[in-house]
Design goal:
The protein is mainly beta. It has a single domain, classed as Porin (Beta Barrel), CATH 2.40.160.20. It is built from three helices and nine strands; from the N terminus they run H-E-H-E-E-E-E-E-E-E-H-E. An eight-stranded antiparallel barrel has the order 1-2-3-4-5-7-8-9. Strand 4 and strand 5 form a beta hairpin. The longest helix is centred in the first third of the chain and has 22 residues.
Length: 247
């Protein structure tokens, strides 16, 4: 009887160890994809609002990214490198002047994914969250705009910490997984500031060539040099398709 008990205990121990080792297997996927991003909050609007300092006047743009996913137990961890190009064009004031905007955001994201397993199904939905480091670049072109010399001016580089979340679904086809996702990205969650990076002899122009997502502490109503009254939130909805390969 004692030997039977020992055998049963040994069997249970083997099952526990085998189950743990099976669940603890690490999986790795790498891939790349394309996406479409729509500005939210003050990142949108039109060029008239950009000229007045209330919004950024940005329209939807395209995203290019690489993604890595590591799976362990019931949790995935992902990392993503992304480059999103935004633009905008329109009047400075109704019917007068022309402004062309180019905004690029390079993002490094990392966070957890929580897969929802469906037995015997090639489809796996998941929820996700992330933190991001975002670097802005681009330029702005003015033509016949009151108070600003015609020309194209580079935007000063700026970095902000962002957060976001969303969900997606993966479709498995052998070694290939097609990953469809939707993310909300608050790009400037922290680090908002008013800071003139490119100082010229044109104070109004200086406001447009720096990110300036914080309120101008010297704001004066009607001023041509200090007209950014409020903090400005920069966000985007991102729709992505990624081809992932398991290693």
């Amino acid at each position: 009887m004692k030997n039977i008990h020992i055998s049963i205990l040994a069997g249970l121990l083997f099952i526990l160890i085998f189950t743990y080792q099976t669940n603890a297997q690490v999986t790795l996927q790498l891939g790349a994809g394309l996406g479409y991003a729509t500005p939210t909050g003050d990142f949108g609007g039109n060029t008239t609002e950009f000229y007045s300092g209330t919004k950024y006047g940005i329209e939807s743009g395209f995203n290019y990214h690489a993604k890595a996913r590591v799976g362990l137990l019931f949790l995935n961890v992902f990392g993503e490198l992304g480059y999103t190009t935004f633009s905008g064009e329109g009047d400075a004031t109704p019917g007068q002047g022309n402004i062309k905007l180019s905004n690029n955001v390079f993002s490094i994201k990392a966070g957890p994914e929580f897969p929802i397993t469906i037995p015997l199904s090639p489809i796996t939905p998941y929820l996700m969250g992330f933190v991001a480091v975002n670097t802005f670049s681009g330029d702005v072109e003015f033509q016949n705009v009151n108070g600003i010399d015609d020309g194209t001016y580079d935007l000063a580089s700026a970095t902000r910490v962002g957060i976001g979340g969303g969900g997606g679904v993966t479709f498995s086809a052998g070694p290939l997984k097609l990953d469809l996702s939707i993310q909300y990205h608050l790009i400037n969650f922290t680090g908002n500031e008013y800071k003139i990076e490119n100082v010229t002899s044109h104070e109004r122009l200086d406001n447009y060539t720096s990110l300036n997502d914080g309120a101008d502490p010297a704001y004066v109503n009607g001023s041509s040099a200090h007209f950014i009254q409020d903090d400005r939130g920069i966000g985007a909805m991102e729709f992505k398709v990624t081809a992932m390969f398991g290693l």
